[in-house]
Specification:
Blueprint lengths: L5 E12 L2 E13 L4 E5 L6 H9 L7 E9 L2 E2 L5 H7 L4 E4 L3 H4 L6 H13 L3 H14 L5 H4 L9 H13 L5 E5 L7 H18 L2 E6 L2 H7 L2 E6 L2 E7 H6 L4 H8 L44 E14 L4 E16 L4 E5 L6 H8 L7 E6 L2 E2 L5 H7 L3 E4 L3 H4 L6 H11 L6 H14 L16 H13 L5 E5 L7 H18 L2 E6 L2 H7 L2 E6 L2 E7 H6 L4 H8 L24 E2 L10 E5 L2 E4 L6 H6 L1
Helix pairs in contact: 4-5, 5-7, 7-8, 15-16, 15-17, 16-17, 17-18
Length: 614
């Protein structure tokens, strides 16, 4: 049997803290063959990224101790001096990191950054490196590659930046490619393109791939073998199909049970909680059926009509206007008490701007937003502050939403005291204790600081703070997208519980179609600031009409290893820009009703082949 590209034996990584060496990764062993993809999966803190960084020896030896063996084609990397490791990194072993914007130098052009790798590792001249850089950019399917060589990272989309990172990783034709959560921050359609690209390049180069992720749908699509990590240990390993079909460990079962599966709600009338499995016992957790909480009142709680939000672009020394960003264009929808309307689409489609404009965090250019029949866009001063008692927002990043310098109990109590809901500090403390229990936390946790909580717990705190106002509507802007899969399932179940008990209405903003399918009553699909399709959740998912809706649904990774050989085809399309000239007049859009409440924008030639296929 041929020697694997890399063989890891008894890997142990420890970090120094207060004079003690604390092990974070313990006795991890695996190998990766040429042309094979091995997935390291687990939640945040499981040790999967530490494992990858240890293989590359990227931690400073003063504070990190790595033991065991890491043999690259028979040679133990842990025995190499640092100078020789610099020759290995980016040459024989390459790594793609999660966030390309923090991995690329903002002050250098794309071409210069890729050329630097070729000059350093392959000894090419600047002219030869520029020629090879162009070939690499074309290889990773960068449109107009010659022009893009002169551009800077901020001028590229997230998907294109990740392609640049892949081009840099492949510059020296590595034997092993380590991909550390390379698609987590990307939209679902861009994620599909990057996964397809990695598969295609692996076939062409014959390299081994170590793929690190917590997304089991991605694992099913790309991995030959899977290693499940939990608390620094590899607790289960095997062929991907076997892991999915017959998981042995309780944690693996819990991880798989929490994965949102597109199509799992087919035929279901309304939202449903995620079926969870207990990590310790492996037994299913009892889940009550979600009761129908949608109000039968004929007048909607929230009415949005022709909402338009545009931003002027100023250029030049005097700041003359050169164009406008048409972020939200003539958006209309209703929301009833106890109902969840999901706004879905890719980054830049206008869904977050819609939510922020409804909250009056951004000013609308025109349109109407009525809460309980009262126009929000006309409110100022104290009237606007009073309105915000009735409509609250949960942001994507809970850590950025909480003041790191004050205790979380004070953060939750602050709106109670500011709006005079609590009669004093003692009353506020009592209400905070009740809110902590309501979101599944212990009252005594109120004395802690934000950094002492996990990501899921911090998001629960943000929900508690939003609930403090006893709002009628909550705008949840990507409120679960940054969370691990099991924590995401728990937070969504909590939101459904609260909706049922308090009659809350949600505007749920997300790009995760599988989560939206389980969470929502109705769905609005946005593209370039416009709603292209809106209707009941079942209608949108079971009978999508618009080509863009179909594209979004087709790009969702399905946690089914039998689909691993399926090829999606690689697209070089980027989402179009919402920037328009000052003279641009938005066209009047027509909608047709496919079924009761299911409206689709009449689409024309702009959708090309997608229209013909539809």
């Amino acid at each position: 049997m041929a020697e694997p590209v890399i063989r890891v034996s008894g890997l142990k990584t420890s970090f120094q803290r207060k004079g003690l060496w604390l092990p974070v990764v313990r006795d991890v062993s695996f190998d990766v063959a040429a042309g094979e993809t091995v997935a390291l999966v687990g939640e945040s803190g499981s040790g999967k990224s530490v494992t990858a960084m240890s293989l590359m020896r990227l931690y400073p030896p003063e504070t990190c101790r790595i033991e065991g063996e890491v043999r690259l084609e028979g040679q133990d990397l842990l025995q190499f001096p640092e100078r020789r490791m610099r020759d290995i990194r980016g040459n024989r072993v390459a790594m793609i990191f999660q966030e390309p914007m923090t991995s690329l130098n903002p002050s250098l052009t794309i071409g210069d950054q890729i050329s630097e790798v070729l000059v350093a590792h392959r000894g090419l001249s600047l002219k030869a490196a520029a020629k090879e850089t162009l070939a690499l950019m074309e290889k990773v399917r960068i449109p107009s590659a010659a022009k893009r060589m002169q551009e800077y990272p901020h001028q590229l989309s997230g998907g294109m930046r990740q392609r640049i990172m892949i081009a840099m990783a492949l510059a020296c034709r590595p034997r092993l490619l380590i991909a550390d959560e390379p698609t987590t921050a990307l939209d679902v359609t861009i994620q599909a393109q990057i996964l397809e690209l990695i598969k295609l390049l692996q076939e062409e180069e014959g390299m081994g791939v170590l793929f690190i992720t917590h997304d089991m749908g991605v694992v099913a699509e790309i991995a030959d073998r899977t290693i499940v990590m939990y608390k620094g240990e590899a607790i289960e390993r095997g062929a991907t199909g076997e892991i999915f079909a017959d998981p042995q460990r309780a944690y693996t079962k819990a991880l798989l049970s929490a994965v949102p599966k597109l199509g799992s709600m087919t035929g279901e009338p309304g939202p449903a909680r995620f079926p969870l499995i207990d990590v310790e016992s492996g037994h299913p957790v009892e889940m009550p059926v979600v009761a129908d909480t949608v109000s039968a009142e004929p007048v909607p709680l929230l009415q949005v009509r022709d909402l338009t939000t545009r931003f002027d672009i100023a250029n030049g020394f005097l700041g003359a206007r050169s164009g406008r960003v048409h972020a939200v264009e003539s958006v209309s929808f209703d929301l009833k008490a106890g109902e969840t309307l999901a706004l879905v689409g890719e980054s830049g489609c206008g869904k977050s701007t819609t939510g922020r404009t409804i909250m009056r965090l951004l000013n609308a250019t025109s349109g109407s937003v009525k809460l309980d029949g009262r126009e929000i866009l006309d409110l100022t001063g104290q009237q606007l502050r009073d309105m915000r008692r009735h409509i609250q927002m949960i942001f994507q990043d809970p850590f950025a939403s909480l003041n790191p310098r004050i205790e979380v109990g004070d953060a939750v109590a602050e709106p109670l005291l500011t709006h005079g809901i609590a009669s004093g500090k003692r009353d506020a403390r009592d209400q905070v204790a009740d809110l902590m229990v309501k979101v599944g936390l212990q009252p005594d946790m109120a004395g802690r600081f934000p950094h002492e909580f996990s990501g899921g717990q911090r998001q629960r705190l943000c929900i508690a703070r939003a609930l403090a106002m006893a709002p009628q509507v909550i705008v949840a802007d990507e409120a679960v997208s940054a969370l691990d899969v099991s924590i995401k399932a728990q937070v969504i179940n909590l939101m459904l519980d609260l909706q049922e008990s308090l009659g809350l209405a949600y505007v749920f903003i997300s790009h995760d179609m599988a989560v939206v399918e389980r969470m929502s009553h109705r769905v609005a699909v946005m593209y370039l600031g416009e709603i292209v399709e809106i209707g009941p959740r079942r209608s949108i998912f079971e009978n999508p009409q618009h080509p863009y809706t179909r594209r979004l649904l087709e790009a969702v990774p399905i946690p089914d290893p039998s689909r691993r050989g399926m090829r999606r085809g690689l697209s070089n399309d980027e989402i179009k820009s919402p920037v328009r000239p000052l003279s641009y007049v938005a066209p009047k859009r027509d909608y047709r009703e496919v079924s009761p409440g299911h409206l689709v924008q009449v689409f024309g030639e702009e959708w090309g082949n997608a229209t013909a296929a539809a």
